[in-house]
Amino acid sequence: MSLLHLPADYGRLRCVTSFHELITTPWANGVNALCWPRTLPGDFAEVVAQLGSGEGIVALDEAQLRALNVTAAGRIAIDVMLADLCLLQEHQLAPVLNCIHGYPRDEDSSPVPTDVFSFHADSAPVPADTWLCTYYGAPSEGLRNEEALRRVEITETRAELLKLFGGPDDAAFREFLSEQCYDLHYTPKAWAQPFSFGVGNLWRIALDWPGSPVPPCVHRAPLTLPGDSPRLLLIS
Fold it and tell me: Which among 55, 83, 134, 138 is most buried, taking Cβ atoms within 10 Å?
């Protein structure tokens, strides 16, 4: 499966030309992913180098970033990230900047992996969106809804989950799937072509919430290997 960058033929994805358009466009007509394509100035690699080594997900604050000993190009990169952070905060969102050295993996023997490397949909009990931008490192990947198969709908997987649940395929079982987030995870169909969210682009994607007019956007964090560069990510 090759990665495609901003597929023009995908009707659920719409590109916009401004933040205003990004935040005011309603979910309608099946569109569940909005992207503001951007080529950002600044040296984000220098920022990552100055942050140094680490483990897991490290939250970054303004004071920490301002204190880094960087060149003018590095300072521009920091200003870009903090401007995005402020912009989302001004619109009553709760963004965070992270330097991601690695994500925890799902190490148990569950029939359905539930870590961020698995294609999944975000969910909420009320109307909400996910916002994200990768400034440096490997970006997120999306999967067309038509090319995604819910893992709990696969006969063999569902049988394993029923065995784990220890009961019949009824309302209680469906509640179990929801509580464990198993029903939010997907596997690509054989012909699927995941696409890249790209670096520098600001995204707003639809969640799974009661009454949503569109299906959720299926996506995942990029697979990381030892020695890969850390990832600078804004997420809300």
Answer: 134
